[in-house]
């Protein structure tokens, strides 16, 4: 049975993961509007991945006999000055999520909740990837500057992201590398 304190912290993390879904979906819409369809594709894959993150936490509470309670999501940003600003925001958002995961690790240790450790270790590793990927694109865009050719080349590169996981509501989807 999951302890009350770690359960409510993980429950809150579900909200952050769903907000991440919402952030990336909002960026998807922004890039579609700019006709940067490779970036839109990348963001849409990322939104899908965030929904899977939310469901991993959801199932963890459920599997340990807890009750999930969904919390309000905040209004997120819907427009950016330029692609670079959106990617910088994505990187900042991932750093925010990393801090939240670190806090979950802290609480689980304080509560001697060793059962959460494998799941939280997975998320710690995942955050290394998430920060690295968003920071890489932000840095590349900063180097490209106002070059339309450079932005289009990067857009084509990002169109190649392959995401094969099934429905985030299907636990079998979690077994696919994302
Ligand atoms: Fe972007 O990793 Fe979950 O939130």
Task: Please provide a brief summary of the model.
This protein is mostly helical and 178 residues long.
Rounded to an integer in angstroms, the radius of gyration calculated over CA atoms is 17 Å
Main beta-sheet strand count, sense and barrel state: none
Provide the residue-averaged pLDDT. Answer: 95
Low-confidence stretches: none
Please describe the structure with a list of short key phrases separated by commas or semicolons:
single chain, 178 residues, mainly alpha, Ferritin, 5 helices
Give a written overview of the molecule:
- Helix 1 (4-33) runs antiparallel to helix 3, helix 2 (37-63) packs parallel to helix 5 and helix 3 packs antiparallel against helix 4.
- This protein has a single domain, classed as Ferritin, core subunit, four-helix bundle (Ferritin).
- It has 178 residues and is mainly α.
- It contains 5 helices and no strands.
- The protein is elongated, with a radius of gyration of 17 Å.
- The chain has helices spanning 4-33, 37-63, 83-110, 117-144, 148-158.
- Helices cover 70% and strands 0% of the residues.
- The longest helix has 30 residues, at 4-33.
- Bound molecules: hydroxy diiron-OXO moiety (OFO).
């Amino acid at each position: 049975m999951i302890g009350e304190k770690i359960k409510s912290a993980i429950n809150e993390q579900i909200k952050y993961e769903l907000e991440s879904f919402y952030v990336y979906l909002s960026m998807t819409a922004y890039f579609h509007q700019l006709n940067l369809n490779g970036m839109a594709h990348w963001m849409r894959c990322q939104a899908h991945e965030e929904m899977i993150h939310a469901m991993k936490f959801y199932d963890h509470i459920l599997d340990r006999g807890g009750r999930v309670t969904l919390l309000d999501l905040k209004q997120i940003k819907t427009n950016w000055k330029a692609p670079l600003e959106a990617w910088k925001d994505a990187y900042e958002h991932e750093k925010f999520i990393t801090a939240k995961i670190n806090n979950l690790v802290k609480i689980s240790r304080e509560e001697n909740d060793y059962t959460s450790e494998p799941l939280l270790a997975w998320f710690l590793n995942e955050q290394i990837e998430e920060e690295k990927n968003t920071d890489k694109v932000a840095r590349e865009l900063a180097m490209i500057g106002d070059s339309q050719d450079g932005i289009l080349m990067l857009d084509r590169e990002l169109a190649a992201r392959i995401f094969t996981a099934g429905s985030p509501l299907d636990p079998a989807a979690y077994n696919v590398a994302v």
